[in-house]
Fold:
Amino acid sequence: MLTIEMILMTVAAAVVLSVLGIAFGLLLLGIDRRVSARMQARIGPPLSQPYIDLKKLLSKENIIPENAVASIFNAAPIIALASSLIVLLYLPIGSMMPVLGGYGDLILVMYLLAVPALAMVAGGFASGSPYATIGAQREMVSMIAYELPLASIVIAVAWLLYSSGITDPFALSSVVANPVWTMVGPLGMVGLFVLLLTFAWVSPAELSKIPFDTPEAETELAGGILVEYSGKNLGLFTVAQGVKTLVMGGLAVAIFFPWNISPLLGLTSYAAMAVDAIFFFLKVIILMILSVTVIRTGLARFRITHVVTLFWVYLGLAGLFGLSLVILDSVLMGGF
Amino acid sequence: MSDQMKKAPYVVPIGPIHPALKEPVQFLFDVEGEVVKKADFAPGQTHRGIEWMGMRRNPVQIIHMTDRICGICGVTHSFAFARAVEQIVDIEVPPHAEYIRVIIAEFERIQSHLLWAGVAAHELGFDTLFYLAWRVREEAMDVIEYITGNRVNYGLIQVGGVRRDITPEQHPTIQKCLDGYRDLLGKMLNLFLHDTTISIRCKDCGLLSFEQALNLCTVGPTARASGVMKDVRFDYPYSAYGDLDITPILPSAYGGEINGDVYDRIVVRLLEVAQSIEIIETCLKEMPDGPILWEPKLPKLLSACKKAHGEAVGRHEAPRGECLHYVAMDGHDAPAMWKVKASSYSNLHAWIPMLEGEQLADVPIIVASIDPCLSCTDRVAVIRGTKRDLLTKEDLHRLSVEKTRRIQGC
Structure:
């Protein structure tokens, strides 16, 4: 039953988690820039650079182009940030269960992940600039492209849980409680590994990073979708980008690497939660470096046609292949 | 979507200032979806009136101004201008100086092609390669500074020779840099030509056929990448190039077919770096002894220039292709006429056939693929009243008829 106390607890937890999420998301951006710089034999900016950038952006005025649709143009960054923060509230952080765990599942998370991108598309179209329009068209196309591989991952996980007789297969709490690797045979292991690789390629696309940064494409579109954004609005988009990076990492951790460190250390209660949260963030950092930083440092930008081919043909097939291996495995094991 | 909502083709302007462009030029593209249907460009955004300034100065002063025509080719323009003046005044440049001129010209080619390689990588969104190429380029810049004292405006060439010698004590440092490049080149070729993302972005992109390259009078690597055997160093050997064994580099030298795409332009430029290394080594080995100047005393040189009458064309194979200076002297301090035709002037029109039908995403790399140098190219800006204007072929014809009548006095 909902009591006032529970609602207050949830609200407090949500606020604390949002602030932490923003802070850590920006830190992730800093780590990404630093690691990438080191890989390119540069020194790179200090880790605090995203905070400095944000502080400066927030102190600057918003410039709204004359032929922009002001209401949509201004709403887009707020919606983008809000929706990425809400996804964060559905993710388990270490041993702490999702704040809003009882009110949504993986399917909702998938939809919410699409909202920041949609907000950017709306903002891009509302900018009234040809660069932003082309950027927004590209963002839509790439969204459509990467949804299929992402969906196949979610379906595979849910199928696995469902076939093992777990009552609530789509809930993130049950995903975390039952690490997927422990529920499959060798064939399923291969399938899950293929899905993990697919997820590693979907993440940079979801985050609009090279080689999938066609919507922003600095050298072609001068920032594309964000070209007309400045000041506070651009700052909000930066924060949303940081939170989105955290969310994609968190989702990968929840699905593929949900283990916690506190049982090994024999900790309980709040100490365990703190240690697990730190361990969770470490896992996110490692995953982000592997699937975002390394890929973006080592590749050139794709054309939008390449993005579609890659996701629909190669990664789409890889996702379906992984999914069918997982299903085949569970059928062979007689779980279904 | 209803017919009313369809506005394609819509116009996407790129420039005069845009991240894809390293210098100001304006493009207008009619775009349908992501495909460029029609392309047009307007140069003349960075006219500085350098010829006007030159025609009020004597050749020795102009030589130092030619250094500043281009930000990358520090020696190309002074080389071409000096050769024009030397022909008019009938100066014989000492062979030792000719070898030094060739060495610095080839170092310039190395640094310019590496700079271009970095820019190309950046246009493709491949910043890691961009940082690598520019870091590697620094070696050449260091040696250029070691030889001339400057990184950019070398101030090395003088009418009748060069202003600084390359002594035998300097050879080991230069040789060390060349050896370093020889080791690196295999790595660079591998990184640029065997990288999957670069291949899929550059192959069959920005095509310029052999016929188009010939008809549009393209020069330099742009022409050679389309299979046109064209190189001033080979066709009209000048300076020390006559003593050297040079053949123009075509993309087929790397074992492939000649397609005339962006990829072939990368191949040509990287192989030319290797060629330049060979040329410099040969020059260092075979450099004859002797003076470095025809006449070290400036007043004597200037009085010889002042007495000269006549006109001449000086040509040099710049990193971007043939650079041409026309000079006419009529017994005054300053030349009667000075005309600079930079290599990019001949290459710009190749943009139109390259760009039409391509994806918008490929515009930056195609634009960069001819290695445009616009501050070299822009020699005129037409202003009527307070507005920019265009001169058509008819206008130019009418103006030239008027001028001829005026000269003939009728």
